[in-house]
Amino acid sequence: MKINVLNIGSFYISGVSADVQTDERGEPANIRITSYGISRSEGITEGYVNAKEKFKHAVNEALRKMQADQDYRPENFYICLTGAYIKGKEQAVQRAWSSEMHYITPEDIEKIMESSRSISISPDYEVISVHPNQFRIDESSSTKRPLKLKGRKLEMKSYVVYGESSKIDNIKTALMELKILPSGVFYQPIAAGYAVLTQNDFDYGLSVLVDIGHSTTDVAIWKSGELVHASSIPIAGLHITKDIMIALNLKNFDTAERLKLTQGTARDDLVAEDDFINVTGLKSGKTVEIPRRVLARIIYARLYEIFYHVNNILSGYRASDSIPVSVVLVGGSTGIEGIEKLAHEVLNASVSIGEIQGFSNIPPDLEWPSFASTLGTVKLIIENHLITGKMENLPSKNSGESKFKKLFKKFKKTVSEEF
Ligand SMILES: Nc1ncnc2c1ncn2[C@@H]1O[C@H](COP(=O)(O)OP(=O)(O)OP(=O)(O)O)[C@@H](O)[C@H]1O
Ligand SMILES: [Mg+2]
Q1: For residue range 374-394, what is the model confidence (pLDDT) as tens digits?
Q2: Residue 9 Cβ contacting ligand 1 at under 6 Å
């Protein structure tokens, strides 16, 4: 099965094609990236399209690079978005059958997922995706995979993600003008979680995914195996760079960005007191020498603010102090030295930088925390297909004809041709 994903960030637009093979149980055995394309974003900030033609150009660039790897142009893409206009809430629905015991079919799952979409939200919003958390059949204990089980009543608890229709429409229209048909839409922090969190992370304690990108910091929280929260804070790397530009009186953004990337740290105690750096590109035209600790303090202030907001979100889910909290950081801004220690200080939790896992190959260009949500979308789609039974239509890795059968067929053909 081929899965095409287009991830729309405000720094990078990235597309991947993945080939998924299953084992004899229908479980994914091999996920291989067959092509990818990355372009620098344009015309989109905080998830809003603000210059449509520029945005289309950036998307086209990513697609063009994908095409260079392969001689076909996929038209169906799953889209992954972010923005503070996206929200989510928990939802519970059920379906019952009056007749005798009923085998739960893929259509039943599709229907119950569809009924989850009818939540009460403001008319300006629309549902983006439904993430099943737990199914229960006839009051029995819960399951993640109800397919083919027997029962009279199926209950589903899920997390439903929705966003402001006008913002989503602007993205979809631009994509459709590029002949891209969105097969489905997902939300980046949830997808990123699938790239870097292990099954244990999902299942135990409070697992928090924080994606610090360019214009948004996205947060998703799983509590004891259930997705309970996803939201975006409109502050990230862009704001750090702007702070540097303003505080140091720099003429342009790129100079500030370069300083951040080459000299920036998240804490001043990581820098020696006598470490000075030359700063050029000032509005005054002068070159000045400043302690590197000054730069660290500018970055610290903004990162502290980001983690302060994350902590506020988190505190609502920290039911008791005894629940273990683990925070995994992804996104380009995690490249700042010392960010883990600062996150630990503010969030009072174990903190690590996420490592993308579960793929048989990851092109080196995609092996960065920036692309966690792109690759995670592939795994999220596979998880959804496993629940809805769509994986079962795949040819299994081992279910094809055995070597022996193929040889036997060839032998029969040759024999019949000869006689
Ligand atoms: N080594 C680094 N140190 C500090 N910041 C970095 C580093 N590498 C990348 N960044 C910053 O990461 C940001 C880009 O992050 P990312 O690639 O995750 O963005 P994005 O996903 O496109 O954005 P968003 O999710 O906000 O729409 C930029 O602000 C960039 O300056
Ligand atoms: Mg991002």
Answers
A1: 999 999 999 999 999 887 655
A2: yes
